[in-house]
Each structure stands twice: as structure tokens, then as C-alpha cells.
Write a structure and sequence with these properties.
Layout (H helix, E strand, L loop, with lengths): L21 H14 L6 E3 L5 H7 L6 H15 L4 E5 L4 E6 L10 E4 L3 H10 L2 E7 L1 H17 L8 E6 L5 H11 L3 E2 L17 H23 L1
Parallel strand pairs: 1-4, 4-5, 5-6, 6-7
Antiparallel strand pairs: 2-3
Helix pairs in contact: 3-4, 4-5
């Protein structure tokens, strides 16, 4: 997708980084950042499925604390040149990781528990939530903003990304930005119509229907908001 676009940015929602080795995460994301000329952000979460961690040979019990340390460690590894990291959970001797990202890779964290929101406020460049009814989104974001204030963070430079159980519209998205401070929306353009995903007999028709609503979303929402 990056090879045929110039403006799209890409992120994960969310990547369970704690059950992968840190050097694997660092190298994969750095490579993606180079290939996209800096159009990549990393969305990470602590995870909840113990079996995933067991399969990867990673400790499930300290996954949150390890993720907290992994975030600044990744930033150090992506600086370029000779880098190292010594912490409680990761001990990386002096090394080079090349090619390194052409610019700092934003790191967003997910989850809406207090621990997850505190992680976002303390360590991350932004927060990726889920899709919520308006009142629930407002509750999570208000708690997040309070944790950001406690960390003396600048709310104007912090990304807040989530979805709303609302039909896509220019008015909804303007209101989400003005009232909630949402800077990025998770959205499904095909929610504007009825795409029969269950019809596997004619996938070309299904794909065309998705495409038509993506085009409609661009024309009726993205361009007016731009």
C-alpha cells in the first residue's frame, strides 16, 4: 500500500509487542518506517491472552511493566548509529540497528483500563481506543486527559484515536474533535450502506460495493473536512 500512495499513514491497532522479542519489534517497525518514508506509527497494547505469551516464550505476568519499558527502549534503538539500552527487563549491548527510521516513529498505546490510560499518558505519543457509544468514549477520554494533566503533558500534541457508534458524518466528526478532543477517527465507510459480506458467491460484486462506499466516504466526508 505504501508503494502506491504518498499521503496515507499506517499504524497497528494494536500490536501485542510484549510477546515478541524487542529487537524483532524494533527491526520490523524500523524497516516499515524506511519503506514508507516515515509514514508509520506503532500502536501497541499489553495483551490479555496468556496462551499467546506462552507460545512465544514470554512472561505473561509482567507484560504491562515490560511494555512500559519497551516504549522508551524502542525510541532509543531507532535513533541510528550506536545505541544501547539497560533496564529492568531489557539489556541490549551497544549495537547498530540499520536502516533506522527517517524520523521518530510515533507510538500509540491501546486499552481503556486505568493502567492502560496511565501508560498512554506517561509513555505514549497517543492513545488508540476501541469503538464506543458517545458517552462511554467521553468517559474514557476524560480520564485519559486527567492522567495527561497529572503527567504535565501537552494535550495539543497528543493523538486521541477511537471510533464512535454513530453513522459517519461531517457533523459527527467535527463534534468529536471539538467536544471530545478526538484527533483521529476509526471508521468503516461501508457502514454508510448495506454491503452483504456474507455473499461469497460473487466476491467481485462485494469488493465493488466496498469500493463504492469508500469513494462516497471520501467525497462526502473526507474532502469537506479537509
Amino acid at each position: 500500500m505504501s508503494s502506491v500512495t504518498t499521503q496515507l499513514h499506517f499504524t497497528t491497532n494494536v500490536y501485542i509487542a510484549g510477546h515478541r522479542p524487542i529487537l524483532q519489534v524494533a527491526k520490523e517497525v524500523a524497516t516499515a518506517a524506511v519503506l514508507t518514508e516515515g509514514r508509520v506509527a506503532l500502536g501497541v497494547g499489553a495483551g490479555w491472552m496468556k496462551e499467546e505469551f506462552d507460545l512465544q516464550g514470554q512472561d505473561y505476568t509482567n507484560r504491562g511493566k515490560r511494555l512500559n519499558e519497551m516504549i522508551p527502549a524502542l525510541r532509543e534503538l531507532w535513533k541510528g548509529g550506536w545505541v544501547q539500552w539497560q533496564g529492568e527487563y531489557y539489556d541490549i549491548p551497544t549495537m547498530t540497528l540499520e536502516p533506522h527510521p527517517p524520523q521518530p516513529v510515533p507510538i500509540y498505546t491501546g486499552g481503556h483500563t486505568d493502567a492502560a490510560l496511565k501508560r498512554a499518558a506517561k509513555y505514549a505519543d497517543g492513545w488508540i481506543g476501541n469503538a464506543y457509544p458517545w458517552a462511554e468514549a467521553e468517559s474514557h477520554i476524560n480520564r485519559l486527559k486527567e492522567f495527561l494533566r497529572q503527567e504535565d503533558r501537552d494535550l495539543s500534541t497528543f493523538e486521541i484515536i477511537c471510533g464512535l457508534y454513530e453513522m459517519p458524518s461531517v457533523e459527527t466528526y467535527k463534534r468529536a474533535g471539538a467536544e471530545l478532543g478526538i484527533t483521529g477517527m476509526m471508521c468503516m465507510p461501508w457502514a454508510m450502506g448495506n454491503v452483504n459480506k456474507g455473499d461469497r458467491r460473487n466476491l467481485n460484486d462485494v469488493a465493488a460495493a466496498y469500493q463504492s462506499y469508500i469513494d462516497k466516504f471520501a467525497e462526502e466526508i473526507v474532502l469537506p473536512l479537509q
